[in-house]
């Protein structure tokens, strides 16, 4: 939304509170650094520059399968007016992941039936930091996925 409205993002900072296996895995500084590097890469690809700010990840075992993400986004609005967008998101990780895994399994099986193998870049939509040279913008990834699904349907 910010990019489409030509609003310049100056800074993007966040805090993620993670329970369960994600929180424990990302308590390791190396794993957290890799995850943050992936987030920064996506922001840079989508925005065309790297905004100021960092993301912090905290392991909160009592959250169980739930996670909370808080983001603080500073941007320039009309006539350079400085503005802030803050979001707080809470969700159950397994309830979010289950339908994605089912979609991936069905699409991969159909691609295999169609004779495709190897990396399927059209499935980038399902990954936070996909491999390959595909688009970083989620809307572009979704369009690529729709085209892929249509082609898979036509080969039956």
UniProtKB/TrEMBL annotation:
Domain Myo-inositol-1-phosphate synthase GAPDH-like: 1-94
GO BP term, example: inositol biosynthetic process
Any Pfam family hit: Inos-1-P_synth
Cross-referenced InterPro entries: Myo-inos-1-P_Synthase, Myo-inos-1-P_Synthase_GAPDH, NAD(P)-bd_dom_sf
A GO MF label: inositol-3-phosphate synthase activity
Domain of life: Bacteria
Family, per entry: Belongs to the myo-inositol 1-phosphate synthase family.
This protein's name: Myo-inositol-1-phosphate synthase GAPDH-like domain-containing protein
Lineage, highest ranks first: Bacteria, Bacillati, Actinomycetota, Actinomycetes, Kitasatosporales
């Amino acid at each position: 939304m910010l990019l489409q409205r030509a609003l310049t993002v100056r800074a993007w900072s966040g805090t993620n509170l993670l329970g369960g296996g994600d929180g424990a895995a990302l308590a390791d500084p190396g794993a957290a650094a890799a995850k943050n590097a992936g987030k920064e890469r996506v922001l840079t690809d989508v925005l065309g520059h790297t905004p100021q700010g960092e993301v912090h990840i905290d392991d909160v075992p009592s959250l169980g399968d739930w996670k909370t993400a808080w983001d603080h986004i500073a941007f320039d609005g009309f006539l350079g007016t400085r503005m802030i967008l803050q979001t707080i998101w809470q969700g159950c990780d397994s309830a979010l992941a289950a339908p994605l895994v089912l979609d991936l399994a069905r699409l991969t099986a159909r691609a295999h039936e169609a004779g495709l193998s190897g990396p399927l870049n059209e499935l980038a939509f399902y990954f936070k930091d996909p491999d390959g040279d595909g688009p970083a913008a989620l809307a572009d990834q979704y369009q690529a996925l729709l085209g892929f699904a249509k082609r898979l349907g036509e080969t039956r």
